[in-house]
């Protein structure tokens, strides 16, 4: 579903749409593919949270990011990514709406410079937005840790796409 209807549906289900700074805490729990849809969840502290739509999300709140099982190499296909400094755009799903083992659960996209970088893992549909391919020199790190993605030698077919943050915020405000 394209971004605006996706955000509208999320808000209707009790989720919040935010811009924040996320810092992984190092805490994780094993998930259950059958029950929660992710092999593991990784805790993140949200700072400087600014709620664009939905229930307010407080700075200092802990949220969980789904990702690969411990010991599995993280890639943009099986993990969410963070930019240096941890700036992010996210849908924050309350535990009850996400039906996950932990909560709230993040569906996040890193913010690099003035752009939101959408990854294959986040299930974002950018139809109608004319996204650019991520070619910036800012490396992105998988949420559970591991090798960086992006940088000056990033392939054009990396599956990472950008949309200006201002555009994403406008879409969220009208969702």
Quick structural summary:
This protein has 175 residues and is an alpha+beta fold. Helix content is 16%, strand content 37%.
Produce the secondary structure layout.
Layout: H1 3-12, E1 16-30, H2 33-36, E2 40-53, E3 62-67, E4 81-82, E5 87-93, H3 95-98, E6 105-112, E7 115-118, E8 132-133, E9 141-142, E10 161-164, H4 165-174
Antiparallel strand pairs: 1-2, 1-5, 2-3, 4-9, 5-6, 6-7, 7-10, 8-10
Q: Main attributes?
A:
single chain, 175 residues, alpha+beta, two-stranded antiparallel ribbon, 10 strands, 16% helix, 37% strand, globular
* Largest sheet descriptor: 8 strands, antiparallel
Low-confidence stretches: none
Q: Count of helical segments?
A: 4
What would you call the quaternary organization?
single chain
The best one-word shape is globular
Estimate the helix proportion, in percent.
10-25%
Binned strand content: 35-45%
Order of helices and strands: HEHEEEEHEEEEEH
Span between termini: 13 Å
Strand arrangement across the biggest beta sheet: 3-2-1-5-6-7-10-8
Backbone structural class: alpha+beta
- The overall average pLDDT, rounded, is 86
User: What's the count of strands?
Assistant: 10
Radius of gyration: 15 Å
Describe the structure.
The chain has 175 residues and is α+β, with helices and mostly antiparallel strands. The chain has 4 helices and 10 strands; from the N terminus they run H-E-H-E-E-E-E-H-E-E-E-E-E-H. It has helices at residues 3-12, 33-36, 95-98, 165-174; strands at residues 16-30, 40-53, 62-67, 81-82, 87-93, 105-112, 115-118, 132-133, 141-142, 161-164. It is globular.
């Amino acid at each position: 579903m394209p971004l605006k209807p996706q955000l509208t549906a999320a808000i209707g289900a009790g989720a919040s749409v935010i811009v924040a700074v996320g810092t992984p805490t190092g805490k994780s729990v094993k998930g259950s593919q059958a029950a929660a849809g992710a092999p593991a969840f990784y805790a993140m502290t949200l700072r400087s949270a600014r709620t664009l739509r939905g229930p307010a999300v407080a700075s200092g709140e802990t949220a969980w990011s789904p990702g690969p099982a411990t010991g599995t190499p993280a890639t943009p296909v099986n993990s969410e990514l963070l930019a240096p400094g941890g700036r992010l755009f996210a849908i924050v799903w309350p535990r009850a709406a996400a039906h996950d083992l932990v909560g709230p659960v993040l569906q996040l996209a890193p913010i690099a410079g003035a752009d939101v970088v959408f990854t294959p893992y986040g299930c974002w549909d950018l139809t109608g937005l004319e996204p650019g391919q991520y070619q910036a020199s800012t490396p992105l790190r998988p949420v559970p840790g591991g090798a960086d993605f992006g940088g000056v030698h990033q392939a054009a077919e990396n599956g990472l796409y950008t949309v200006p943050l201002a555009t994403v915020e406008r879409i969220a405000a009208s969702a």
